[in-house]
Amino acid sequence: MHLRLLNPQIMRIVGREFGKGLTNIEVAKSEIGNILKEKEGVIDIAILDNDGRILFSYKGLILPPYKTADYKTSDGLFYREVVVEGKRCLDLVLPQQTMGLSNFYFRYLMYFPAIEKQMANINFLLLVLAFVSAVLSFIFSYYYAKKITIPLHQLEEKAKAIKKGDLEQEIPVLEDEIGELAEALRTMLLEIKNKQNELLMQNERLNEAFNEVLFLQNQMLNYEKFAALGKISAGMSHEIDNPLGIIIGHAEYLKSELPEDSAYIEDLDTIIREATRIKKIMRSLLSFAKPKESKIKEIELKTFVKKVLDDFSFQKIFRNIELNFEAEEVVVYADEEKLHQAVVNIILNAIQAMPKGGTISVKICSEDGFGVVSITDSGMGIPEELQSKVFELFFSTKRDGTGLGLAVTKSFIEEMKGKIELSSKEGVGTTIRLLLPLT
Question: 2-111: CATH homologous superfamily?
Answer without folding.
Answer: PAS domain (3.30.450.20)
